Amino acid sequence: MGEKGEPHVDAAGARDQLIGAAREAGEIALGFFRAGERTSARVDYKAGGSPVTQADLAVDAFLRARLGAAFADAGWLSEETEDDRQRLSRASVLIVDPIDGTRGFLSGDPRWAISVALVVAGRPVAGVVHAPALAETYAAAQGCGSSLNGAVIEVSRRETLAGARIAGPKAMVDSIARAAGVSLIAQPRVPSLAYRMALVASGALDLAVGSEKSQDWDIAAVDLILDEAGGQLVEAAGAPLRYNNADTRRGVLFAASTRMIGPLIAAGRLAAGSKLA
Question: How far lies 127's CA from each of 9, 187, 272, in Å?
Answer without folding.
Answer: 13, 25, 31
